[in-house]
Amino acid sequence: MDPITFSIIRHRLFRVVEEAVITLKHVSGSAITNEGHDLMVSLYRADGSLLMGGVGFLHHLTSAAEACKAVIRRFSGRIEEGDVYLLNDPYTAALHTSDIYLIAPIHHEGRLVAWSACFVHVYDIGAMNPGGFSPESPDIYTEGFSSPGIRLVERGVLRQDVFDTLLNMVRSPEMVALDLRSMIACNNVAKDRMLALIHKYGVATVDEACAELIGQSERLLRKRLGELPDGTWRSRQFMDVKGEVHRVELAMTKAGDSLVFDFTGSSPQSRHAINCTQWASLGGLFAPLFPLLCYDITWNEGVIKPITMIAPEGTVVNCRRPAPVSVATVGAIQSVNNAACATIGKMLSASELYADEATAVWHANHFAIFMFGRNQRGGQSIGILTETFAGAGGARSFADGIDVGGEIPNPISRMANVETMEAAFPIRYLFRRRMIDSGGPGRHRGGAGCELAITPHDAPDGGLHYVVSGKGAEFPMSDGLNGGYPGAPNSYIWVHQDEAGGDNRDARFAKALDELPGRKEPVTWGVFPLMGKDALYVRWNGGGGYGDPLEREPARVAADVHANLVSAEAAQAVYGVVLQADGRVDEGATAERRKTLRRGRLLTEAAE
Fold first, then answer.
1. Predicted pLDDT of residue 31
2. What is the pLDDT of residue 501?
């Protein structure tokens, strides 16, 4: 078609999604949505195939496509103009029950021409544990309500009976109602803008542009894959839950203009809620693929066609119902993210043409700490520590990773201000800052993560409770690339300050974990109290490093030490850089230290 008209329609489709995202954020009252950007808005064709993927958590682009197709199958012949459908069943399409999809058909002159879809992590879902991450749940039945598809709005009129039934099953129904209404508003804006586009250019022209856009994306990705070397690259991720270790194994094979992601060899499904379903794994591998291989290609069905996934049923990456999956987004799904990011990075690094686009793994271990209890105003509060969205950038082939730099699967993620969290919950932050020695060492250093500590403040019940879940703290997960080291792992410490004994230090002025008085107990899974003078300390992982740390310029290591990003001990032990008392590099001692470290590597390899 006419290239100018095509370009205009393509950009207008981008604007449809952007305006819908703005609406969603403005109407929502949840920090996880409007601060953390735990959301997604996208457009789909009449058959449910992805037309225009929006920003937010990219795992949901393919899952929402399957949700559209599930609604089409379920309501075939009964899909009416003005309808809105709700779906959140993980075994149908969603990632876990807390991620509710609202899907709206778009009709023009009585004909179904497109769909809009959005999701947010709702305030509560009625699971065993408030907030939706439910580490104590033994099965899907205790993880809150789930629907394989239900009509929430019929011909433009809210079905109040359905709406009231949903709200009757959750804590803080007024906040969940606001979540749902924000998504309805989002879909209304998407529909209005899409119809305005059709009215201007005509349904046939817009449909032709949409078909061409999908074809263009497929051609561009296949061309890029054809320019990359053939081969198989492997990655392995670990999850530690209550002493049980689970593996996610990936072999990514590139042949010609196609990619196959094979998860054969992954651990059997767990009795804990870290599992994910087949659709969740598919979304998990596309979440890094979209930005890493398709940064200049429209994210739509054309990108999906060259990709094949193999995920054996009954494993942690394709569990059977009724296995619990509420922690999937920070469990198996993120492990799939990391493994895909690692193998794609290896493939790019093996190409002369694309080596400059290779990156080590970013922020590989979310921490899902949900807090709940009465707030300082006497009301109920449920919510997540949004610092988990702050992330840490993996090192690139040409530069260090970005400190506290977000994550690959969500290009717009961020954490809330301290004041936002202190206003919502009866807590006070003792400190929040970049974490020393958290970024993976390498010729280019991985971005630093952070550490924080909170304590109860002005709490009517003396404090509140929090839920800890995720992939544990035993294994580093932000893999390095080309000899780079992984980022430091997460850590969660419950500080029992009421048991400080003779320690008279005042915790209010603590600036580090070792300055907090009291007994320190590591925790990684379950529900815990944060009461009295107790504190919760959290450290999250840095990004992976790129290249051999012994090849990093000594002056850059010295600058990292000066900026409190690398300790003097790590500078000498890992980077082989010896610093003088004034912080300057001791050139002679550094050269000798690096020779010693290299000699030690050779002796270790010979012994093995």
1. 78
2. 55
d(CA 559, CA 188): 51
**Nearest alpha carbon to residue 463 among 505, 425, 507, 499:** 425
Of the candidates 125, 118, 225, the residue with the CA atom closest to the CA atom of residue 169: 125
- Distance, CA of 410 to CA of 393 (rounded, Å): 12
The answer to whether the peptide bond before residue 322 is cis (omega within 30 degrees of 0) is: yes
- Where exactly are the structural domains of the chain? 3-219, 359-546, 553-607
Q: Write the secondary structure of 483-525 as one string of H (helix), E (strand) and C (coil).
A: CCCCCCCCEEEEEEHHHCCCCCCCHHHCCCHHHCCCEEEECCC
Please state whether beta strands 111-121 and 50-56 pair in parallel, antiparallel, or not at all (unpaired): unpaired
pLDDT at 259: 98
Confirm if 148 and 142 have CB atoms less than 8 A apart.
no
- In which residue ranges of the chain is pLDDT below 50? none
Q: Which two tokens stand for residue 52?
A: 């225009």
Distance CA 365, CA 532 (A): 29
| N- to C-terminal Cα separation, the chain | 63
Give the tokens for residue 1.
Answer: 């078609």
Q: Tell me what pLDDT residue 503 has.
A: 65
Structure tokens at 335: 């492990």
Q: Which of 305, 388, 497 is nearest to 36 (CA)?
A: 388
Q: What is the pLDDT of residue 305?
A: 98
pLDDT of residue 510: 87
Between the alpha carbon of residue 45 and those of residues 114, 152, 201, 209, the distances in Å are 4, 21, 17, 12
Q: Which two tokens stand for residue 119?
A: 């999701």
